[in-house]
Specification:
The structure holds 2 protein chains of 2 kinds.
Chain A: E1 5-9, E2 14-21, E3 24-31, H1 37-43, H2 46-52, E4 59-65, E5 70-76, H3 96-100, E6 104-108
Antiparallel strand pairs in A: 1-6, 2-3, 3-5, 4-5
Chain B: E1 13-19, H1 29-39, E2 43-47, H2 52-64, H3 74-78, H4 82-87, E3 92-94, H5 101-114, E4 122-126, H6 132-135, E5 154-157, H7 162-169, E6 174-176, H8 184-194, H9 201-214, E7 242-246, E8 252-256, H10 266-273, E9 283-284, E10 289-291, E11 296-301, E12 304-308, E13 311-313, E14 318-338, H11 342-356, E15 363-367, H12 379-382, E16 392-401, H13 404-420, E17 426-444, E18 451-454, H14 457-462
Parallel strand pairs in B: 1-2, 2-3, 3-6, 4-6
Antiparallel strand pairs in B: 1-7, 4-18, 5-14, 7-8, 8-12, 9-10, 10-13, 11-12, 14-16, 14-17, 15-16
Helix pairs in contact in B: 7-8, 8-9
The chains are: A alpha+beta, B alpha+beta.
Chain lengths: ~140, ~475
């Protein structure tokens, strides 16, 4: 690894959304900042994505959308036959954008300020409105 | 006040979304309609409630009862807004007709009567259902997978915007469709309103992408987007549903219902623009081939995002049809283990199931350790180190089977784990679900006859 580079996961450089049609999964991946887009083009290659999704038989195609600082990753035969055939709880593969966002990348020091590190704590909706004190 | 879709106009058109899928929020449409009324110009409201499987399930209901087969929540979707839309000249276009558009039209007329409203002019769009004459329209059409040795449950072709536009142009106040391309729900009103020729490919492509952005409801206004700490969405619990404003060139601005939660920004719109797209230069619909490879997305105000640069090419020569077959049964069973040794006990339970069910292809998940990202063949699970010692694991087993009894046998073994399995197993749940198999093929246009008709005396009186 380049000594000046920071190792992080893709979630800090981009956001993503999964769609499905039959056995084909597509993930739209969008750079947080246009300045990070060349880095995504360089590191989120079809081969790198295929390796990251190695548990799913796949052919990965990549379509670049520079005006949107985005790319569309299309994975064939990625959904165990698709929503009508798969045994997965998530037969649509809705969650797979977050498998992609867990992919490791390296970010040069000069781009580090563009990364989006998660801010703040987690939501806490689990109040106990009528808690009784022990008597 | 009321705007006539039977006169072409260059005034911008607003199209609001009342639902983006069959299970969508019932209270989403009213704030959208109020916003459309306050804005004052020509407007339309759409409902997209017909996913691939939804239509096949509707066809099965219609087989059991000829009066059934449209959206079971139809009245609940429309009741809050029907009177307002009729009073303010906002046509409603929805694919909630599913397998029975005429049945849906009758229910809408009954709803209007029950609400004390004058009978609306209701039109139905037909021609998508290819089941007639024993599926003759499909003869010789190759499908994209092995064809089961049985009659299909349903076969429906994706229709385009034209019959919707024609019905609106004739003065329809409600247009009920079965299978149409989802974006056609927006393109139809736009064609009726602006009078675009059906070979004006750039404008058709722009209207199509506006429909693409609108048809999944809250997915463009902050739904399916929030990731706390990274992508925060204000007021997600009350996310407003989207409204697109189209100009006469087809360029659109995406916004949402006034005084609602959620967010529309360049990020939500970009994610949704790419949703379920394959080649961005080749997005095929019945109306046009859209090219978004040079499209731009730009915030032009709070919760307002402009989409430009969409181009179009001539529509495909064929129409896509989905053909559904009965697909056997899906068995899913779960049991949980917690505390010290939980993962070991969950793994042992899986081993017991595998021993008890030889000849069944079982998928296992260790929920809490690996589930959604894993594959049916079990490659990911097999590669996990087994000594991680997770202390709250839900074992899930799933199997598909053509025979109901064999699928049920899997579930019976899960239930038996209570007393015969590892220590401390709790919370057994089992589910047996009938499945549908969907194949698709491309049908020449000449085999398909898209058409619309009045379903109400009020419409016929006007015609």
């Amino acid at each position: 690894m380049n000594r000046d580079a920071t190792a992080c996961i893709l979630r800090e450089a981009a956001h993503a959304r999964t769609g499905d049609k039959g056995d084909v999964c597509n993930i739209g991946l969008v750079a947080w900042d246009a300045g990070l887009y060349p880095l995504l083009v360089e590191q989120v290659t079809p081969d790198a994505v295929a390796a990251h999704f190695r548990h799913r038989p796949r052919a990965v195609r990549r379509y670049l959308l520079p005006r949107l600082a985005a790319m569309n990753l299309v994975m064939e035969q990625a959904l165990d036959g698709g929503v009508n055939r798969a045994l997965n709880l998530d037969a649509h593969g809705k969650s797979l954008a977050f498998l992609l966002l867990s992919m490791p990348i390296e970010v040069p020091a000069a781009l580090r300020h563009l990364l989006r590190r998660p801010q703040g704590g987690l939501p806490n909706p689990f109040h106990v409105p009528h808690a009784r004190s022990p008597s | 006040m009321a705007f006539d879709f039977d006169r072409e106009s260059a005034v911008p058109l607003r199209v609001g979304c009342g639902a983006g899928f069959a299970g969508d929020r019932l209270d989403a449409a009213l704030p959208v309609v109020r916003t459309l009324i306050d804005a004052g110009g020509p407007a339309c409201l759409i409902y997209e409630t017909l996913a691939e499987r939804t239509l096949a399930l509707a066809q099965l209901r219609r087989r059991a009862d000829a009066a059934e087969g449209c959206d079971p929540r139809l009245e609940r979707f429309l009741q809050p807004v029907l009177g307002l839309c009729l009073a303010h000249g906002i046509p409603i276009v929805g694919n909630f007709g599913a397998a029975n558009p005429r049945g849906a039209a009758r229910r809408i007329l009954a709803l209007a009567a029950a609400l004390g409203l004058p009978a609306p002019r209701v039109a139905v769009v037909e021609g998508d259902d290819l089941s007639g004459d024993a599926f003759a329209a499909l003869r010789g059409i190759p499908l994209d997978g092995p064809v089961p040795d049985a009659q299909p449950v349903s076969a429906n072709v994706y229709l385009g915007a034209q019959p919707i536009a024609q019905a609106l142009g004739a003065g329809a106040q409600v247009v009920v469709t079965g299978r149409v391309a989802d974006p056609a729900l927006v393109l139809g009103p736009a064609v009726a309103h602006f009078g675009w020729p059906l070979d004006d490919w750039d404008r058709l492509a722009r209207g199509t992408m506006a429909g693409h952005l609108l048809e999944c409801g809250a997915q463009v206004t902050g739904g399916y987007f929030a990731d706390p700490g990274c992508k925060d969405v204000p007021g997600l619990a009350d996310a407003g549903f989207p409204i697109v404003e189209l100009d006469a060139e087809g360029h659109c601005v995406v916004g949402k219902a006034d005084r609602s939660g959620g967010v529309v920004d360049a990020r939500t719109v970009t994610e949704q623009l790419l949703y379920e797209i394959h080649d961005p230069a080749d997005y095929r619909t019945p109306d046009v081939v859209a090219d978004i490879s040079e499209a731009t997305v730009e915030a032009v105000g709070p919760d307002r995002v402009a989409v430009r640069g969409v181009r179009g090419r001539p529509r495909p020569a064929t129409l896509k049809a989905n053909v559904c077959y009965e697909g056997g049964w899906l068995a899913e069973g779960e049991i949980s283990y917690a505390g010290p040794g939980a993962e070991g006990r969950a793994r042992l339970a899986a081993e017991v199931l595998a021993r008890r069910l030889p000849g069944h292809a079982l998928r296992f998940d260790l929920i809490g350790r690996a589930s959604l990202f894993a594959d049916d063949a079990g490659r990911m699970l097999a590669g996990l180190p087994s000594d991680a010692g997770a202390q709250d694991i839900r074992l899930r087993v799933a199997a598909a089977d053509a025979e109901r009894a064999r699928a049920q046998a899997v579930l019976d073994e899960v239930t038996a784990l209570y007393t015969c399995g590892p220590a401390g197993g709790g919370g057994v749940r089992t589910h047996l679900t009938p499945r549908l198999e969907t194949l698709s093929g491309l049908v020449p246009r000449e085999r398909v006859a898209p058409r619309w008709a009045w379903a109400s005396p009020a419409g016929e009186a006007r015609a």
